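Translate sequence into C-alpha cells.
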Amino acid sequence: MDYTVGELAKRAGLTVRTLHHYEELGLLNPSGRSDAGYRRYSEADVLRLHRVLALRDAGVPLKDIVPLLDGETPQPLAAVLQAQIEQIEAQLLTQETLLQTLKNAARRLAQHGDGGDALQVLLDAMQIRRVHERWFSPEQMRALRRRWEMLPVAERDAVETAWPQPGVCAAMDAGRDPASPEVQALVRRWLVLQRRFIEMAPGMEDTLRQMYAQEPELARQSGISNELIAYLRRSKATLPPEEQT
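Result follows.
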C-alpha cells in the first residue's frame, strides 16, 4: 500500500508543507510517482518518517538526522542521544537558576518592598546569581535548591527572618564587647542557623566561607562584611568550647 502526500501528512499529523520541507532536507523522499507525477510514499517511507519524527521529538536537530539514517559510518544513536541529553540538562539547569533568581526577587519585593526601585531589586538578584555561578557548579546549585525546597515553607520563612544579623551589626557599630551576654546570645542564634544551612550544603562549607570573604557584592547585599565575620568570630571564641563547634 502506498500513500499520497496528503494521506501521509494526515496519518502522521503533519502538514503537506512539512513533508515537502523534509524532502528538501533529504529526510524523506517519496519512493515513487504516480502516472500524473504525484508523490507516492511506501510503507518503508512511512517507517522512515516515524524514525525522523522520533529523533526530532528527542531534540536531535533536523540537519543531524540525515547522517544518522543514511551515513555510511553514522554516529551511533546512543552517542547522539547522550549528547542531546547533556545539552537539555544544561539548558534545564540554566532555566532552573533563572527561575530561582526571579523567585528570590519576587519574594524580596513581597517581604520588604522595593525601596522605591523595583528594578534594582531584580538587578541585585541577578548579581547574586552571577556570584553563585562563579563559586558553584550548576549541579551544586541545583542540589542546594532542592535541599532548600524540601523544607516546609514555614520553616524556610523562619530561617530567612531569624538571622540575627541586624542585632549583631548594631552591637558591632555600638562597640559592644564581643564577650557580652547580649552579643553571645546573638552569636548562638547565628551558629544554630549557620549549622542548619551547612546541613543543606554538605562539602561546601569552605567554599561558602571563601565566597563570603571574597565577594564584595555579596557583602554589600547581605551586610555580612569581613568586619562583621571577624566580630562574630571574636564573640564565638568567648563561648564554652562545646558551643563553638
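Note: The mean pLDDT is 82.
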